[in-house]
From TrEMBL:
Taxonomy of the source species: Bacteria, Pseudomonadati, Pseudomonadota, Betaproteobacteria, Burkholderiales
Domain ABC transporter as annotated: residue spans: 8-238
Keywords of this entry: ATP-binding, Cell inner membrane, Cell membrane, Membrane, Nucleotide-binding, Translocase, Transport
Protein name: 2-aminoethylphosphonate ABC transporter ATP-binding protein
Organism of provenance: Undibacterium arcticum
PROSITE patterns: ABC_TRANSPORTER_1, ABC_TRANSPORTER_2
Keyword Nucleotide-binding in annotation: yes
Length: 363
């Protein structure tokens, strides 16, 4: 587990490009050893924030401190971090060993200690015998491992990763995800990774900072962000979600079409009669035994089955709200047990603790 000392603190960071507000009022504390992901759609400002932390971009206002030191206006060279970019950015005319040694040589380290450190880093990167090769002789994944080794060469206090996996093929991406995470945990280096890939953030981060239009929408563990999204934006950006239009009946009850439901986790209080948007994830629909029929249940007709291996997505029309078909997930085993196919009928229950209801601003 990460230690709880606050290592990096951002206070009231703001940045505009001309009239465009790229970042507004960013406040964030990152603990020593933490792995934090900045997650958000294209253009939300995550790379700009990372570049401000690195000193590659200057903030218009706000304060940054690292290890208790105010670094707000320090040039990049005076800051203590290693950085990895999406495009590997290795020097093509230098050997792999020379690439990794780059920062050490710049700091005037002796040849012997540089050689030993490079060997150590190449082993850490899983490429102990590649020192004499050149970047063009390595695969994308291998180049990114070397870029990581180069960023870690001087044992920086902070590791910054700007979409480091997005140029790789799917298999390499998944492999490198766990390699980076294991390495980060072993070294205990405080790390920030920019990504627009929710799966990457959910699997790798201690905490996720969800950003939208230059602002932080939510900061939380992957579970908090997924299970208790603070806004409709977070609920729909992280994970799949059904957004259903309904009406509040007051007291945590609401109606969609002709069906009445109750929920435990109301997010917005909407008075009876007010329009609501009900957010339900595919796994919040639980296929139930007809005998266990209580409240929050409805019969459904299967309209479509998308087979995805271990589980499937079923598009179903719940009786009473046929106008709004929903996506429900089901494990392969249950699908086989219930022998469901298109046109089958199945009883679904909704988990009251998982239903999230927001005021429908457009309703
Ligand atoms: P992406 O995943 O597409 O890189 P992002 O969340 O990292 O998105 P940023 O690169 O931080 O987004 O950019 C945020 C906004 O600021 C974008 O609208 C971008 O066009 C704008 N922007 C970034 N850098 C500059 C610049 N130097 N001059 C003008 N506008 C900029």
């Amino acid at each position: 587990m990460p230690k709880q000392n606050q290592y990096l603190e951002l206070e009231n960071i703001a940045k505009s490009f001309g009239n465009f507000h790229a970042l507004r009022d960013i406040n964030l504390s990152i603990a020593e050893g933490e792995f934090v992901c900045f997650l958000g759609p294209s253009g939300c400002g995550k790379t700009t924030l990372l570049r401000i932390i690195a000193g590659l971009e200057s903030q218009d206002q706000g304060r940054i401190s690292q290890a208790g030191k105010n670094i707000s206006w320090l040039p990049p060279i005076k800051r203590d971090y290693g950085i990895v970019f999406q495009s590997y950015a290795l020097f093509p005319n230098l050997s792999i060993a020379e690439n990794v040694a780059y920062g050490l040589v710049n700091r005037g380290q002796s040849r012997a200690s540089t050689k030993a450190r490079v060997e150590e880093l190449l082993t850490l990167a899983g490429l102990p015998t590649s020192g004499n090769k050149f970047p063009s002789q390595l695969s994308g994944g291998q180049q990114q491992r070397i870029a990581l080794a180069r960023a870690l060469a001087t044992s920086p206090g902070l590791l910054l990763l700007d979409e480091p996996l997005s140029a790789l093929d799917a298999l390499e991406r998944v492999r490198l995800r766990s390699e980076i995470r294991q390495l980060q945990q072993r070294l205990g280096v405080t790390t920030i990774m920019v990504t627009h890939d929710q799966e990457e953030a959910l699997t790798m981060a201690d905490r996720i900072v969800v950003m939208n239009q230059g602002e932080i929408e939510q900061i939380g563990t992957p579970q908090q962000v997924y299970l208790q999204p603070s806004s409709p934006f977070v609920a729909s950006f992280v994970g799949k979600v059904n957004i259903l239009r309904g009406t509040s009946l007051g007291d945590g009850r609401f109606r969609i079409g002709k069906l009445d439901f109750s929920c435990e986790s109301r997010v917005d209080h909407v008075p009876a009669g007010g329009p609501v948007k009900v957010y339900l994830r595919p796994e919040d629909f639980v296929a139930r035994d007809a005998e266990n029929r209580t409240h929050n249940n409805a019969m459904a007709e299967v309209l479509k089955i998308e087979f995805l291996g271990a589980f499937s997505y079923l598009t179903v029309a719940l009786e009473g709200m046929e106008q709004q078909p929903v996506l429900a997930s089901m494990s392969l085993n249950l699908l086989k047990e219930l022998r469901l196919k298109v046109g089958s009928k199945v009883l679904y229950g909704l988990l009251p603790e998982r239903i999230r209801v927001y005021c429908d601003q457009d309703g």
